[in-house]
Amino acid sequence: MEKFLHEKPIVPRSDDEKQSVVNRLKRIEGQVRGIQRMVEEDRYCVDILVQISAINAALKKVGYTVTERHMKHCIGHAIQNGEGDAAIEELLDVLKHVSK
């Protein structure tokens, strides 16, 4: 297992930040259930593919939101504390992994 610089964010997420991400993920969860119903109902493949594309876009948006916060808070903090290079390398490794 990989060793990360920190296990929790340097600056804890606000309740509003948490709720915003959780709400987006719940919407995505609902979309996935909708696709399950579409498959069960033997809906047209193109309609299913359009919904899959929408879910992929929504997940990417959540990922960008989390990445942006990480860069602004965690990487910024690491740079101020002399751990900037390690934090940037960690982020690059994660981005390589998730972009496959």
Structural class: mainly alpha
Number of helices: 3
Number of domains: 1
Largest sheet: none
Average predicted confidence as pLDDT: 90
CATH-defined architecture: Up-down Bundle
What is the count of β-strands?
0
In short:
This protein is mostly helical and 100 residues long.
Provide key terms for this protein.
single chain, 100 residues, mainly alpha, Methane Monooxygenase Hydroxylase, Chain G, domain 1, 77% helix, elongated
Topology of helices and strands:
Layout: H1 15-40, H2 45-80, H3 84-98
Helix pairs in contact: 1-2, 2-3
Structure description:
It is a single chain. This protein is mostly helical. The chain has one domain: Methane Monooxygenase Hydroxylase, Chain G, domain 1 (Up-down Bundle), CATH 1.20.58.1000. It is 77% helix and 0% strand. The chain has helices at residues 15-40, 45-80, 84-98. Helix 1 runs antiparallel to helix 2 (45-80) and helix 2 runs antiparallel to helix 3 (84-98). The relative contact order is 0.13.
